[in-house]
Amino acid sequence: MKKASLLLVAIALALFGLVACGGDDDETTAAETTTEATTGGGGSTVAITAAADGTLAYDQTEVDATAGEVTIDFDNPAALSHDVAVEDDAGTELGKTDIVAQDTATTTIDLAPGTYTFFCTVPGHREGGMEGTLNVK
Ligand SMILES: [Cu+2]
Fold first, then answer.
1. What is the pTM of this model?
2. N or C, which end of the chain has less CB nearby within 10 Å?
3. pLDDT tens-place string over residues 78-87
């Protein structure tokens, strides 16, 4: 009977130790996961604006972004409708904002490092000069 009690105490202590250790491990894992989520995303936000006077031009001819989820924040202060589309060097369109006039529009595109072209999809606008280079590093 006495031996059995000692054994129970020993088991209880062993279990307590395991639970305590387990708790510590969980906290460490959670902290590491949070750090990875904060630093692992990459990407950046690029601001592109259209000419306020209604000419077929963006205010930027070349913009830079970080590889990952790249957000295009487009602001068109003019009454003439514009958008911002992005295509790769093979001419494949990867994404675009809504067409807006005197408004803002945004879109997020997953981009690998490389050189891309941004342009306006409204007929005649790209040909009129609404395009530029998007460098992703
Ligand atoms: Cu346009």
1. 0.70
2. N
3. 999 999 999 9
